[in-house]
User: What shape does this take?
Amino acid sequence: FNDEVGVTGCTLCAAGLFADGEGWTECEACVAGLYSATSGLTECAPCAPGYYTDVDGASTCEPCAVGQFSTDEGQTECTACEAGQFLNVTGMTECVACAAGFLGTQPGATVCESCGAGLFSDITGVTECEECPEGRYNTGIDVGVSKCKACPVGYVIAETGASTCTGCEEGLYQDELGETACKKCTLGK
Assistant: This one.
């Protein structure tokens, strides 16, 4: 471009600007979502997927923050990961589903939470964990429980969402795993 009368040469457009025709007296700024990294360009380039710029005249694009992504080029903003997903690195084009045994309760998460005591998740990408069924339990000590443990021999639980099993009382017994009630000792035993 040339913005002065009587000048013998032209000046390169600065980074973030462009001139795509002859005889320009000033350069134009790249619009948001586009950038020009070097001087003297005739057009702006779109930000790559996973990157964005929300200002005019950008010379670089910013990576999407953790918990956010962009799938298309030329974006002016990134999108938060849905609940049940997460991202813990920048500049990504898709989110990762929370693993079995974990949940994501909020959009834009950078980590997934472990299912708590009495809960489990046997599929990926959940926003809530399920309660352990009757006869099974989860203490909450183990991280990422995808299935609940069966109550051991001699113990039972008749409710869902249990974190422990109950031992059989005197006169009762249980010789099987994962049961909901103790058995009565028979006559003579």
Q: What stands out?
A: The chain has a mean pLDDT of 92.
